[in-house]
Design goal:
Layout lengths: L1 E2 L4 E3 L5 E3 L4 E2 L46 H24 L70 H96 L2 H11 L6 H50 L1
Antiparallel strand pairs: 1-4, 2-3
Family: Belongs to the flagellar radial spoke RSP3 family.
Main location: cytoplasm
Pfam families: Radial_spoke_3
């Protein structure tokens, strides 16, 4: 059983050559067995081997053998390219995008460049004509057929050597069905476990809420007792303080009464003797009435004396005139 994996190239003379020689195809391992180690190439399927030329070979860019890279370098470059594409895709997915438009509305394109340009759905078309010289008719160019080179190699495939769907798909189907059933059972067990955990969490939350309510009630009761105790102590201190003040007042009053028992008569007697205690009627008579009365009496006596003096002078004058008249009559 022989097959060929080749990469077509052209030598300086223009002939096509192969870059690799034909090699035998390895037998496939059965289901569940590890593949044999590959020592000659990293590609197991010629459909994914980049060294195989597909399609039209006329426009292919063929590199010389010296410029070709080994399969490891090609695979490394492809891995780097895939990583760059995956990084670019993740960057595009993580980039902030415009949110969806509201119902009944739609987004429109807005120019954000420095220089605006007119956007139009009408394509500007212009008719341009050009005068060319006439050419003579010539026959069509013949189809280019490259010269055949190399050797033709065929592969004989016997009955049952290719992929048998019914035989190969049964273990895969068994694995898929088994994995689906196993995943379903795991999901059912996970759902039951989640339901049990939710029940336990709900019971725990109820118990915790009850304990918190009980703790809050005990704290409130303790706070009320503490406040009542402090209030009672304050009231007791205030009562003791008032009792002490009353006792001090009683003692001071008794001492004052005992001290002032003989002092009051002496003070009153001294004040009375110095004239601080007096009868208002007597005082008014002595200070107001008696001076006024004495002034009136003095005025009355002065008027009487004046009248008497005046009468005496008149009598004296009359007596003198009578004496003079008597003397003249003698």
């Amino acid at each position: 059983k022989m097959t060929f994996v080749s990469r077509v190239q052209r030598d300086p003379n223009g002939n096509y050559i192969y870059s690799s020689r034909p090699r035998p195809v390895e037998n496939r391992s059965g289901y569940g067995k590890p593949p044999p180690e590959q020592t000659h190439s990293t590609y197991g399927n010629i459909m994914f081997d980049p060294r195989v030329v597909r399609g039209n070979t006329y426009a292919q860019r063929i590199l010389p053998i010296a410029a070709q890279s080994d399969p490891d370098e090609v695979q490394r470059q492809q891995e780097i390219r895939r990583r760059n594409i995956a990084r670019k895709r993740s960057r595009e997915q993580s980039r902030t995008r415009t949110p969806e438009a509201a119902q009944g509305r739609k987004h429109i394109d807005v120019q954000t460049e420095c220089y605006l340009e007119e956007l139009s759905d009408i394509t500007v078309a212009k008719d341009i004509a050009c005068q060319t010289d006439s050419f003579l008719d010539r026959p069509a160019s013949p189809l280019f057929i490259p010269a055949k080179s190399g050797k033709d190699v065929g592969t004989q495939i016997e009955e049952g050597e290719l992929f048998d769907f019914d035989t190969e798909v049964q273990p895969v189907l068994e694995v898929l069905v088994g994995k689906v059933i196993e995943q379903s059972l795991l999901e059912v067990m996970e759902e039951e476990e989640l339901a049990y955990l939710r029940t336990q969490q709900r019971v725990f939350e109820e118990r915790r809420n009850n304990e918190l309510a009980e703790v809050m009630r005990l704290q409130e009761q303790d706070r009320r007792r503490t406040e009542e105790k402090e209030r009672r102590m304050a009231q007791q201190k205030e009562a003791l303080k008032k009792e002490k003040e009353v006792a001090e007042k009683i003692a001071v009053r008794a001492y004052t009464q005992e001290y002032l028992s003989g002092l009051l008569p002496t003070v009153f007697t001294s004040l009375r003797s110095h004239g601080y205690f007096f009868d208002p009627v007597q005082n008014d008579i002595e200070t107001n009435f008696m001076p006024w009365l004495m002034d009136e009496v003095n005025n009355s006596l002065e008027r009487r004396n004046t009248a008497r003096t005046l009468l005496d002078n008149i009598i004296y004058d009359v007596v003198q005139k009578r004496q003079e008249m008597f003397k003249e009559t003698q």
